[in-house]
Amino acid sequence: MSNAIFVNQLGYNLNGKKQAFLNKDVCNCDSFIICTEDNQTVFTGKVLNPVNDELTKQNICVLDFSAFNEPGKYKIVCDKESSFAFSIGDCLYDDLYNSLLDYFYLSRCGEKIERTAWAHEPCHTGIAEVYGSTEKKEVQGGWHDAGDYGRYIVAGSKTVMDLLRAYECSKNTFNRFDILAEVRFELEWMLQMQRDDGAVYHKISCYNFCAFIMPHLEKEKIVLAPVSTSATADFAGCLAYASTFYKESDSVFADKLLAAAIKAQNYLDCHQDQYYINPSEITTGGYGDNNVSDERYFALCALFAATKKPEYYAKAKALWNCEWNESFSWGMVSAYGTEILIQNKNDIEDKGFIQTLEQGIINRADRIMNIINKSSFRVPFVKVNWGSNGFVCDEAHILLMAYDLTKKDEYYNGAKDQINYILGCNPMDICYVTGFGSNCVKHPHHRPSGAVKKTMPGMLSGGPCQGLVDAVARENLSGKAPVSCFVDHIGSYSTNEVAIYWNSPLVYVIAKLGLV
Questions:
Q1: Of 81, 218, 294, 488, which residue is the catalytic one?
Q2: Is 488 a catalytic residue?
Q3: Does the global pTM surpass 0.90?
Q4: Per residue, what are the HEC states of 408-424?
Q5: pLDDT > 90? residue 479
Q6: How far is 131 from 18, CA to CA, in rounded Å?
């Protein structure tokens, strides 16, 4: 392979848009063919005009074969260049989807994991210190956040929201009970992170990152970091929203979630913003945020949806800012609040505000599509930042909101473009999910994988990061085009770490697109 032809290495559904990409700097062809595994030509197409953007710096052409709808396994050939194999058919994403979800079970903290190569005894079962005090508190459970073993409220809240949205839009296409059971494991941990006064500790971790060891071997002191507004508001929004999902199956648990969310909101109502900055002694992930109005808005939207109390809606409307670049990221959660209000618009008399919110999402989607349409690989990058693969999934979420509002295929197809990019239609010619595709990530920055020297499947790598933050990236990627600033190396935490809140939007987008 010469990185000339880039395909979605899992494959394409029978009907709808199907596109691959050609680097015309490597292979200057005007046409392409699709061949079977035994080299029988089954389709011939034209190479479209190249696009060369500043982030890719290559002449990349689209190869469109949407008209070809025969199920099977194929490859694309241009002159002497050949792509990786891919399939056309239905149910191509089921194994990927289940593996993406299984990652959350395998990331459980405080529980014995008995199956697979990553089995381990219960971890992080010690009593935590409350930073800056003599207080001790027992906090068990939750998911390990990323390549490390910390547990963070803002990251966990975003993850839970994505998974609940996937559950909600799936319409029984997968085992819904298992999703709710897995999410409940995280919620039970989140409940323990709340103080008696309603405030929520920002995170729990050791004081420093450990070596690449299994989680039960990390024996250092565990610390509860100070409370923050972002954690408390995310907690309130996440638990209020989640409470509606457990009403039928466990009303006691649902009531417990909602009561905790209201308690957190009452704390927020009585306290000014408390921004989180890591104390000097704590060097694990910070997840700091110096603008928490979006978190407060999200909390109020979710509480309105859960309680139907108009005062929550009134406060949310007063906080909404038309200048927000609404997003589903951990640092800008306003889109979750807006999505919730739109979902519950029948309970809102102010139809003008709902129309404003809906038009705002459509305008935001149009801006995304404008970037995609000028991008060589049809991705919405203006700058390629840390966690870029999670970003493209979050932007796809915006596009799918716009699709729901307008039913315009361009938004649906734009979201699908992001799946193609993740699964192989990128300049690295790589599937960014471990364990899938002909050429996938094999050396992620993930402690359990590094400890046992076997890569856990179903993890979405963070992807290219033009900032060259870590030493491995600086050594290997200097001078590379931004979208090529990726190295499949365990030491490159800025390009090749994994995280629960990168897996979760991919789960959502696959479910929402109807790929499972």
A1: 488
A2: yes
A3: yes
A4: CHHHHHHHHHHHHHHCC
A5: yes
A6: 53
